[in-house]
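FORM 12-B: Structure-to-Sequence Request
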């Protein structure tokens, strides 16, 4: 078990990618704190799934975009587990909108959750890691859009670009404390947010045509990458960006080769 006795906090862990990572961490021996904001039912289901397989998990409620709420969440995890060794910043929101239709409030909300939320949680956890003197690992869930921008998502593209830049800046400044900071950049992964759209045959066909591996990704496809980057197997890896997109990012401008 690569994460035996480690304590891992996963934000947005109640569904999709966050839940898959939470469950994979628990099966690798970690004691997991599953963060949720509104989806308590999903968090309970994730926790029960882990516990049914003899894993250890708790749920912790917090709005990551609210600094005081983040502090309360950290206190809950410390009270339950005594510290935090691994942080996965997975919580995020998206609302595809044409640039000219974007409202300032919508743009602000995306940045508050996707960027400020990551900052609040990362800084609070990093302070704890530094005080304990044992190092740690922080994994940020960014997106391929940080490198290849998608249409109707200017606000989301900008937020994930900021996540990628923060990842490298944090790796640079936290390295002396033996805190590693990396990111995964998924794309075309089927989650609750986009599952309905992917059921449309034309849309699904169009998506599949952009993926060299020939299938839509599932949240579980990212779990192995997350386990690796947060384990001692990656003890010499920091500031890295691992694209997890089935090859979508390597499709040339003229399209997928026949």
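FORM 12-B RESPONSE
SEQUENCE OUT:
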């Amino acid at each position: 078990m690569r994460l035996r006795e480690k304590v891992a906090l996963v934000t947005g862990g109640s569904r999709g990618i966050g839940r898959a990572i939470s469950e994979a961490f628990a099966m690798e021996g970690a004691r997991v704190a599953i963060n949720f904001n509104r989806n308590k039912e999903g968090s309970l289901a994730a926790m029960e799934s882990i516990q049914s397989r003899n894993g250890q998990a708790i749920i912790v409620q917090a709005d990551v975009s609210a600094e005081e709420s983040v502090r309360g969440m950290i206190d809950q995890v410390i009270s339950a587990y005594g510290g935090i060794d691994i942080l996965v910043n997975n919580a995020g929101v998206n609302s595809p909108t044409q640039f000219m239709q974007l409202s300032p409030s919508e743009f602000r909300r995306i940045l508050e959750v996707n960027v400020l939320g990551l900052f609040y949680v990362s800084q609070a956890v990093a302070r704890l890691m530094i005080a304990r003197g044992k190092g740690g690992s922080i994994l940020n869930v960014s997106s391929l859009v940080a490198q290849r921008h998608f249409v109707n998502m200017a606000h989301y593209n900008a937020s994930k670009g900021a996540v990628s830049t923060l990842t490298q800046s944090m790796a640079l400044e936290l390295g002396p404390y033996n805190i590693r900071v990396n990111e995964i950049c998924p794309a075309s992964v089927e989650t609750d947010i986009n599952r309905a759209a992917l059921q449309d045959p034309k849309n699904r066909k169009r998506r599949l045509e952009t993926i060299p591996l020939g299938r839509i990704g599932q949240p579980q496809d990212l779990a192995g990458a997350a386990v690796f980057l947060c384990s001692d197997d990656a003890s010499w890896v920091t500031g890295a960006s691992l694209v997890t997109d089935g090859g979508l990012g390597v499709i040339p401008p003229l399209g997928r080769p026949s």
